[in-house]
Specification:
Order of helices and strands: HHEHEEHEEEHEEEHEH
Low-confidence stretches: 1-18
Number of strands: 10
Largest sheet: 6 strands, mixed
Structural class: alpha/beta
Bound molecules: guanosine-5'-triphosphate, magnesium ion
Radius of gyration: 18 Å
Strand content: 15-25%
Mean pLDDT: 88
Distance between the termini: 48 Å
Oligomer: single chain
């Protein structure tokens, strides 16, 4: 076996260990296919966005079960380019660079995201539609940089895609209370942290409404690092898939 092949095996094994035997390329595939058939478009294309260090790339790596996206050290922004990943022939995801990376870089990153949100394709009937069907905004559980999240929502997301195509999810549930009340063995929060996360969900939904005017579905919380609520994250996305193409 070549070194590259071995490395890939190790990577996929790591993903396997994190989320058990969950294979997201097959999970709810039939359901997704049926939704797309009714909506008359294919594939479903999701853009993942959020401030730098929120865990966008980590989330994609566990869903795809190997290292598709480069993960940062939490200080320097890691993803600098837009990148497309295919989970299967019905579902694609675009990873994006995170805001909160200094004024100049943020301008550059915003431009890339706006460009992606305005990228069009032509259907067989020669109508044009937006490439991105839906946006997932990832927030980190500790709420370190909510200012950048609101800037992202207000300056980039709201003006460029319909609000009912936007979902918010809270990652890093394990460190939402600085690592307290998280059981590393069972990979679960205790009741104190659970209550805290539930409150956070309501407060973020309310704060997003106040800051942007958008009424988003109740966000879910998860931990990409521990594979906690990843199935719920995927369900959240599939359950909110749009039922038509995006007019542009
Ligand atoms: N504790 C904890 N750390 C996490 C979790 N998810 C990601 N991280 C860590 O957070 C850091 C940043 O993760 P990335 O996935 O690179 O973040 P990103 O959102 O892609 O960042 P940019 O590419 O810079 O926009 C890494 O050190 C991850 O290991 C999580 O659920 N819990
Ligand atoms: Mg990244």
């Amino acid at each position: 076996m070549s070194a590259a092949c071995l490395a890939q095996r190790v990577d996929s094994l790591r993903g396997f260990l994190v989320v058990g035997n969950m294979d997201f390329s097959k999970y709810r595939k039939q359901d997704i296919e049926e939704k797309l058939k009714r909506a008359k478009f294919r594939p479903m294309t999701l853009m993942v966005t959020g401030v730098t260090g929120a865990g966008k790339s980590t989330t994609l790596n566990v869903i795809f079960q190997h290292d598709v996206a480069k993960i940062g050290n939490g200080v320097e922004p890691e993803t600098m380019r837009l990148g497309e990943y295919r989970l299967n022939d019905a579902f694609r995801v675009w990873d994006t660079p995170g805001l909160g990376d200094g004024v100049m870089n943020d301008q550059r990153h915003k431009k890339k995201i706006v460009y992606l949100l305005n990228t069009k394709y032509q259907s067989a009937e020669r109508n044009t539609y937006g490439l991105i069907d839906m946006v997932l905004v990832i927030i980190e559980g500790s709420n370190r940089d909510m200012g950048s999240t609101y800037t992202l929502l207000n300056d980039v997301i709201v003006p460029n895609i319909q609000g009912d195509r936007v979902l918010v999810a809270i990652n890093q549930a394990d460190v939402a209370m600085k690592g307290r009340h998280w059981d590393k063995k069972t990979k679960q929060p205790d009741t104190v942290l659970l209550n805290f996360l539930e409150e956070q969900v309501s407060s973020i939904q309310r704060r997003v409404k106040e800051a942007t005017g958008m009424l988003i579905p109740k966000p879910i919380y998860y931990s990409a690092e521990y594979g906690y609520h990843l199935k719920e994250l995927f369900d959240f996305i599939v359950d909110h898939m749009p039922n038509n193409r995006r007019e542009l």
